[in-house]
Amino acid sequence: LHVALRHISAEEPDASWEVVKILLGKHPKAAREKDADMNTPLHLLAQEKAPLDLLSLFLRSWPDAITERNKRGQTLLHYAFKNGAPLEAIIPLLDKWLEATDHRHSSDLVFMQNHPLREVNNLLNRVSGLFNNEVLDTSPSDAATHFINIELWNGVLLVINKHPTIVK
Asked: What is the helix, strand, coil percentage profile of the chain, to 5?
């Protein structure tokens, strides 16, 4: 999988992604393999701005991959933010990161500053504020409603855990 992901064709990316899907279908445990830099195939997918359905396929194959760090201590979420992934790709990764309570750290949020998309920065500010017990620029109820609207379910749970009085 690593070799296939490193040789994604710029001329025919859809065909290349299909090869990756076939390889994963035949060898699902290959999603857990790491290269010399301790990158999983999902790290490489996040670097290459893979289609959302392919990211989802890998995450379904190995849900705990979101907590895996490479030699530099970077997770999938690091790569997604670093490479300006769209909101649609950030949401499922962020939701999985929020779910992994044993492996998430407030220092992980520092790297997520200055994403090129304003909507991603707004989302990050809400999650970061809640995670670090900061005063939000919106009410907890508004934050929960926003998370419900974008289906960031573990974000909703974070709001409830930090502000249990919003549940009446």
From this structure: 65, 0, 35
